[in-house]
Amino acid sequence: xxxxxxxxxxxxxxxxxxxxxxxxxxxxNKAMHEALQTALDRAEADGARVIxxxxxxxxxxxxxxxxxxxxxxxGAPDLGLALERHYNPLIRRLADSPVPTLAVVHxxxxxxxxxxxxxCDLTLVAEDARLDQAFVRIALMPDAGGTWAVPRAVGxxxxxxxxxxxxxxxxxxxADWGLVWQAVPADRLEAEAMGLAERIASGPADAIRAxxxxxxxxxxxxxxxxxxxxRDLQSELGRSRDFGEGLRAFAEKRAPRFG
Length: 259
Ligand code: LHQ
Prior knowledge:
Blueprint: E1 6-11, E2 14-19, H1 30-45, E3 50-55, H2 66-74, H3 79-96, E4 101-105, E5 108-110, H4 112-119, E6 122-126, E7 130-132, H5 146-154, H6 156-165, E8 169-170, H7 171-177, E9 182-184, H8 189-201, H9 205-218, H10 223-237, H11 241-251
Parallel strand pairs: 2-3, 3-4, 4-6, 5-7, 6-9
Antiparallel strand pairs: 1-2, 7-8
Helix pairs in contact: 5-6, 9-10
The protein binds ligand LHQ.
C-alpha cells in the first residue's frame, strides 16, 4: 500500500490493520480513512478470517484529526459531510463486514476512534487504556455510532455520564461495565489479541458468519423474527461440512479441524 497511514499484514488467516500516525496519536484524517477502506478491501480479497484493528505507537487513536478539522473550519464547514463521507460508511461496513473484526485498544481511544473500536465485533483493551468520549470538550456530540452503541452496552445513565462529562474510563472499568469484551494487562495485550484472533480464524466460518448476522438482526428485530432467523440459519449450518467435522471430532474425543 503506498499510503503508510494504515499498515497491512496478513499472518495465516488474520489480517492486522495498524493505524499509523503515531506522532499524532493515530488521529484520523482523510488519507487514513481512505487507506482503511483499501485495507478492509484487501483483507476481504485475501480471504482473511478475522480482521484485527490496532494503533501504532502509544495509542489506539485520538479520533478525528483536529488540525484537519480546523482547516475545514476555515473553509465551508460541514461536519455532517465528513460523517457521511468517511465515518458512517466505515461504521456500516464494520457492522455488516463479512469478516469478524477485533479492535485492540492500548493507550487512548478518543472521540470517533473510541466508537470505531466499539463498532468492531470484539474490543479487547489494555486494563490501563483510556476510552474517552472526548467530543464534549470541543462542543460536539458523540458520532461514529457512539450514541447507538454505548447506551445499548452500558445503559442510558452511564452512556450519558461518559458523554456529558467527557471523563475517560479505563479499560478495566470498560470491561466491568460490559462496554468491551475483556481487559488484560498492557504487557499481555498483543499476545492475547493474536491468540483470540487465531481462535476466531480457525473457527467454523459459516457458523461465525451466521451468529454475527443473527446478532446484528437482533438489534432491530423481534423475538419471533429472531426465532425464525435462527431456524433458517441453523438449518443451513446443519448441512455444512464443518458440522459433520464437529460431530466426528466430538465422537473421536479430539479437537475439530474446521475448513
Ligand atoms: C492530535 C489529536 C487529534 C490531531 C492528539 N488531532 N492531533 C470530529 C470532527 C469532524 C468530523 C467528524 O467527527 C469528529 C469526531 C471526533 O473524533 S471529535 C474528537 C476528536 N478527538 C479529540 O477531541 C481528542 C483530542 N486529543 C486529546 O484530547 C489528547 O490528545 C488525548 C487525551 C487523546 C491524549 O492526550 P496526551 O496523551 O496528553 O497526548 P497529547 O495531547 O500530548 O497528544 C500527542 C500529540 O498528538 C500532540 O501533537 P504534538 O505535535 O503537540 O506532539 C497532539 O496535538 C496530537 N493529537 N490528538 N485528535
